[in-house]
Structure formats: C-alpha cells, structure tokens
C-alpha cells in the first residue's frame, strides 16, 4: 500500500509547486511587462513651413506652422488615439485650427504625429493687443495639441492616456522667423 502511495504524493507536490511557479510568473509578468504603461512624448518641433507678406502692408502676412509631436509607446500593444485638433491662440483667442487624424502607434514603437496650420495675420487686427505687438515686431502665439487614446497590452489590459503638448511661439514679421519653446505632459 505505502509503496504505491509515495509516487502519488511526489507527483502532487511537484504539480502544486509547478502551479505556484506558473501563477507567480503570470502575476509578475502582468505587473512588469504587460501592465499598460504611459506613452512618452519624446520630441516636439515647430517649424515655419511657409511665410508670405505684402511689403506695402505688413498686416497682410500669412504663415504656415508645421507642428510635430513624437510619441513613444512602450507597451506590448498599440496606443490608439482619437481624431483631434491642434489650436493656435493669440492672447487667448483661437486664430487657427488644424485636424489631427486618428491613428495607432504600434507596440513598442515610435511615431510622429504632425499637422500644419495656416495663420492669417489679418484676422488678428481686431485684437486690442495687435498694434502694440506689431510695433515691437513680436507676435506671440500658443499652439496646443491634445491626443486622447487608449494604451493596450495583450489586447485585454486597457488604460486611457491623454498627451498634452503646447508651444509658446514668437513670430518676428520683419525677420521672417519664429522662435518657440515647447512643453508636454501625459495623463494616465
Ligand atoms: C493671405 O491669405 C489671404 C486669404 O487666403 C489672401 O487673400 C492674401 O492675399 C494672402 N496674403 C499674402 C501676403 O499671401
Ligand atoms: C476621423 O476623421 C476622419 C476624417 O475626417 C473620418 O473619416 C473618421 O470617421 C473620423 N473618426 C472618428 C472616430 O470620428
Ligand atoms: C493685451 O491686452 C489686454 C487688454 O488690452 C491687456 O490687459 C494685456 O496686458 C495685454 N497683454 C500684453 C501681453 O500686452
Ligand atoms: C512674447 O514672448 C516672449 C518669450 O516668451 C517674451 O519675452 C515677450 O515679452 C512676449 N512679448 C509679448 C508682446 O507678449
Ligand atoms: C530670428 O531673427 C532674429 C533677429 O534677426 C535672430 O536673433 C534669431 O536668432 C532668429 N531666430 C531664428 C530661429 O532664426
């Protein structure tokens, strides 16, 4: 009797130990590799894509800004973001908008989200700050791009994430150039 029982007990113990190892490994993997992680904003750039002005009337100036936000997705699953809009404001008034198309950043991938926005200076002339700013040849704008999305891992673990990026832009009409300082934030 005892002779036939012993292998059975050993078998049960081995099975139990293996099960515990598998469960611990699964839990550890979930909390390390497969836990949804927040996307990171790695680069931000703002470029002057085009500039046209009327030498007889400097308020007749148009320029196009290229806005690019580089996002890094550290997850073993995609980061899917919704359609969005980039805004350019002048002293708090929205003066230009540009659409940002919904897309998915692949697992453990990097992706540049970009758009171009046209600003027509003539549309600012009614702003009370305009003539004073034009006198100093410095028009300050702020651009903002917000992306709302979901980070997924293994298709089952999902978490909402929102990236915010904004740039303070100074346009110098006479020098035909822009300088900018950008900052970003991710809410998870
Ligand atoms: C700026 O754009 C407006 C509207 O498209 C146009 O009427 C105007 O001629 C443009 N001005 C310059 C200097 O390109
Ligand atoms: C996003 O925008 C595109 C193009 O404007 C449109 O075809 C699509 O239906 C939009 N998607 C959503 C979820 O609104
Ligand atoms: C813009 O104009 C408002 C009201 O005229 C004024 O309070 C504010 O200080 C001005 N801002 C700048 C940066 O000149
Ligand atoms: C525009 O922004 C620059 C840099 O942020 C600042 O030094 C300057 O005073 C601002 N000028 C106006 C007119 O708001
Ligand atoms: C813009 O022009 C000003 C004046 O000429 C210069 O000091 C500045 O370096 C220029 N900035 C860029 C980004 O070219």
TrEMBL record:
<dbReference type="InterPro" id="IPR055301">
    <property type="entry name" value="Lea14-like_2"/>
</dbReference>
<dbReference type="InterPro" id="IPR004864">
    <property type="entry name" value="LEA_2"/>
</dbReference>
<feature type="domain" description="Late embryogenesis abundant protein LEA-2 subgroup">
    <location>
        <begin position="68"/>
        <end position="162"/>
    </location>
</feature>
<keyword id="KW-0472">Membrane</keyword>
<keyword id="KW-0812">Transmembrane</keyword>
<protein>
    <submittedName>
        <fullName>Late embryogenesis abundant protein, LEA_2 subgroup</fullName>
    </submittedName>
</protein>
<dbReference type="Pfam" id="PF03168">
    <property type="entry name" value="LEA_2"/>
</dbReference>
<feature type="transmembrane region" description="Helical">
    <location>
        <begin position="7"/>
        <end position="33"/>
    </location>
</feature>
<keyword id="KW-1133">Transmembrane helix</keyword>
């Amino acid at each position: 009797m005892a002779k036939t029982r012993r292998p059975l007990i050993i078998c049960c113990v081995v099975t139990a130990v293996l099960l515990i190892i598998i469960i611990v490994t699964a839990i550890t993997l979930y909390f390390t590799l497969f836990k949804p992680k927040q996307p990171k904003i790695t680069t931000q750039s703002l470029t002057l894509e085009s500039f046209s002005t009327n030498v007889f009337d400097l308020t007749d100036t148009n320029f196009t800004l290229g806005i690019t936000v580089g996002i890094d997705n550290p997850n073993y699953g995609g980061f899917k973001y919704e359609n969005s809009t980039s805004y350019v404001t002048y002293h708090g008034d929205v003066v230009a908008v540009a659409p940002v198309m919904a897309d998915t950043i692949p697992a453990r991938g990097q992706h540049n989200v970009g758009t171009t926005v046209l600003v027509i200076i003539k549309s600012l002339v009614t702003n009370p700050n305009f003539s004073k700013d034009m006198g100093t040849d410095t028009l300050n704008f702020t651009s903002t791009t917000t992306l709302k999305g979901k980070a997924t891992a293994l298709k089952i673990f999902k978490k909402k994430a929102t990236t915010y990026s904004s740039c303070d832009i100074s346009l110098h009409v006479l020098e035909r150039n822009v300088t900018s300082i950008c900052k970003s934030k991710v809410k998870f």
